[in-house]
Specification:
This protein is of the alpha/beta class. It has a single domain, classed as Alpha/Beta hydrolase fold, catalytic domain (Rossmann fold, 3-Layer(aba) Sandwich), CATH 3.40.50. The protein is built from eight helices and eight strands. It starts with a strand and ends with a helix.
Length: about 260
């Protein structure tokens, strides 16, 4: 029976809480929840990857910096927020001595995945992009509003010394500077990205189906599952099997090199 290991690492004024479970090839898993992406979200996720993959992988997850009810904290990185998240995440992998890893990103984790691949293409051997957030032209402010009305209010209660103008600029640089696609990278990057990906589509206000189609269409080595895939249970089970096979195939190939 795999036991969960919880610890912290600190770097550049940021304190990150992380967990590990299982053993084997490293699988870095980022939970959904937007800016409130935190470990506690996994039990209620459509795929609790910590449970589903702990038998075959060393699964590593973390609270994102300043997530509500998480235990990771640091400055608000106004000028380069997507790069700051990638810095935290790669910093954790460095702290653990992990050079290459597979990645599973749910919700905002899809944007994190593509930014990680852009920053460190030789380290992410394959990525599952599950229910990714994305720009929705008919509702262009959906992610801004999600952050402003949810995360920002809670953050200000905890950190009242941070001006609202700072928070607004932070959200602007996350979701308004590049109002297209997955926010964190460009379509041109996706067109030239050689990393294998498997996209699990969704279609909600924050998870634009068109974004899933675009990722799968643009990235040369991207695959996509059927949609919808969450029901009935038999279909979800087949999707989970495909996720496991995809991760095993690419991790085995990486370990053999």
């Amino acid at each position: 029976m795999s036991s969960v290991r919880t610890a912290f690492y600190e770097k550049d004024g940021v304190r990150i809480r992380y967990q590990e479970v299982g053993s084997g090839y490293p699988l870095f898993a980022i939970p959904g929840g937007g800016l409130n992406s935190r470990i506690a979200n996994w039990p209620n996720a459509v795929i609790n990857i910590m449970e589903e993959c702990k038998t075959d992988f060393r699964v590593i997850t973390m609270d994102q910096r300043n997530a509500t009810n998480g235990e990771s904290a640091g400055p608000v990185p106004v000028d380069n927020p997507w790069d700051a998240f990638a810095h935290d995440q790669l910093g954790l992998m460095d702290h653990l001595g992990i050079r290459q890893f597979a990645f599973f990103g749910n919700c905002i984790g899809g944007s994190f995945a593509l930014k990680l691949i852009e920053r460190a293409p030789d380290r992410v051997v394959a990525a599952i992009i599950s229910q990714p957030i994305g720009y929705r032209p008919e509702d262009p402010e959906v992610m801004w509003n999600h952050g402003r009305e949810g995360w920002a209010k809670e953050f200000r209660e905890r950190r009242p010394e941070v001006p609202i103008a700072t928070i607004d600029k932070y959200l602007h640089n996350l979701y308004r500077v590049r109002p297209d696609f997955v926010f964190s990278v460009s379509r041109d990057f996706a067109r030239n990205c050689q990393t294998p990906m498997l996209v699990l589509p969704d279609d909600t206000p924050a998870h634009a189906y068109q974004t899933c189609v675009d990722i799968a269409s643009l990235a040369p080595n991207a695959e996509v599952t059927v949609y919808p895939w969450k029901d009935p249970p038999e279909l979800k089970a087949r999707t989970l099997n495909r996720v496991r096979k995809f991760l095993k195939a690419h991790s085995t190939a990486s370990a053999a090199r």
